Structures are given as C-alpha cells and as structure tokens.
Amino acid sequence: MISTDAVIDIHRRIRAARLSRCGGDEWVQPPANWAKIIRESWPLVWSQEPSRCPDGWVDLLMAFSEHAVELGGGGLYHDAFENVITGKLVIQRFYDDDRNGRLFETAHGYQTASVAICRVCGEAGDLRRIDHRPTRALCDDHFQGV
Ligand SMILES: [Zn+2]
Predict the structure, then answer these.
(1) Of residues 131 and 11, which shows the higher confidence score?
(2) Residues by chain with Cβ below 5 Å of ion ligand 1
(3) pLDDT over 80 (residue 59)
C-alpha cells in the first residue's frame, strides 16, 4: 500500500515535469516523436518506446521515468497505454518480479494518478463517461468536446 506522502510526492513530480516541459501553466503539445524521446532519455527504464500512451500523460510518463531511475528500475518497461475499459493508464513491463517492490508500488501510484489528469491536454481531470462510451480521464473542456 502506497503512503499518502508517496502519493503527494508523485503528484508533485508530475507537476514539476509539466512545468519543466511547458515552462508555465499553458499546455504545450509534445513533439510527435515524444515516445522516442522518452525511450532515448531513459534507456535504462524503457526497453521500447511507450508510444501508445495518450499525449496528455506525457509529463506523467517523464516524471515516472525519472522516478524509476531513482529507484533503480532498469529495462523493465516496454509499454504505456490507456486501459480501454477503466480509462486508467497502464505502465507495462515484461515480467513481474518482487526484486523492487518499491518500484512496483510507485508505478501503481502513477497509474492511479492518471485518472486525475486529462488524457488530451494534461490539465486536471476526472474519470468521465457519457452514455455507453468507455470511461476516460478528461478535463472540463475536453469532456464538453466528447
Ligand atoms: Zn483536457
């Protein structure tokens, strides 16, 4: 079970990643090849480009990558994508092991944090659902546009 302090730390790291990338509160669309950039920036964390992750979670993914390095997570992750049913981020690795339980808990913390971040623009969001469409993490603006 992840502690409240750890959850606060994860949200702080995501905000810091966004500020360092965007330089302010306005959303800056990441370059089209951002998954390649993440793979090349954190080669010990990502064995492949996490290219299926929605753009709005790119700052979350950068914060996670840096955090994983700090926790000694090397070469475990190969994909990050949106769960089509729950709308939550899945950060996937090739195999499960318990050699780094703290990294496993931390990854879970980032996945949980994704539901409060718009999948489109990275602004504060919430899980939303209209009619029978799948649940998605969206801000007020992008929820209106659904
Ligand atoms: Zn949005």
Answers:
(1) 11
(2) 118, 120-121, 123, 139, 142
(3) yes
